[in-house]
Amino acid sequence: MTDTEHLVRHIEQRLQRPLQPAIRQAFLHIPREEFVSQYYQKRENGLSWKLVPASTQQVYQDHVLVTAIDDKERPFSSSSQPSVMALQLEALEIQPGQRILEIGTGTGYNAALLGFLVGAGGQVISIDIQEGLIEVAKRRLSTTGNISVLYGDGFAGCREYVPYDRILATCGVRQVPQAWTDQLQSSGRLICNLHTNLTSIFLCADKCPSGRLEGRLLDIDASYMLMHTGSYQPGKPLDWSAYEALPQRHVQFAEPVDVLLKSPAFCLQLQALVPGIFKKYHGNREAIYLYLLTDEVAMRVDGDSLLFFGDQQADIEQKIKQCVQLYRASGRLPISEYRFSLDGDCLHFSVAGKAFQLCLQNE
After folding, report:
1. Are residues 33 and 68 in the same domain?
2. I need a labelling partner for 60 at 20 to 30 A (CA). Which of 107, 192, 285, 294 fits?
């Protein structure tokens, strides 16, 4: 069995089904080792990284591999988990001869897979804002005749080769840039990873004749690094002492809250019912806790209950209970059963006859 055959086997074991024939051939044809010669591995203390050579055994596992970190040891590029890549490639329904825009070149491995799928008559435009990554990817893809790697701000897309039949973003966003919609041809398809304050979801959107994006959510359990413009803007630190000084009260729910918060479907509904809610981890040497927070209230997650900090909790408590009831009434349907449309920065989604609206915030 060849190395690429081993990788395909690992992917299919993860998905518990065979890959679509064209996607299977792409992974068999493109060696991942040509795009990952080394990667960063967490040290035993879990606080820092070490650069290690990429062994053949490691490269052909179904694992994400961090390939670049900044001077503060924050990862900013990786070779994505192959099974996640496969699910996106299948959902794109790529046809030979199509023109595809990839946002986030990274190692160039995904661009090579796209190039194989569109064939000699197709074209792949891959852009990245990290010039060092671009130069390396160009060398790795130099023998292909249908892939162009360019420097560019992902938020702006790439106007030079519009329109695109498909757009694939291999990075996370908090809002879908209007440029992506504008540069996608009518009936074209976009896949991207949308980060909300509570969860990560993958949009598979088709462009309607009206110009609006409509589609479904993909059942992908992953979260890409957020797209950036080249500079890091740290968030404002929270004043935890202000929350902890507020009145406290335990509230029990019909189902374990910690389990519910692992469901993207539940989190998406909760985000729509309680706009502005977000989550943070906080603790000390003894314990780390997950908190849900709003401007007025903090809630520490404790199994099937929440420990509320604040005296303005009644409305939030009721909305969380309402969300639990809605989620149960919908039969706990997976995220793949959700349909959506996107109007500007407003995500409209529905499931089991219930409609929701979520205003996306680029924070």
Report:
1. yes
2. 192
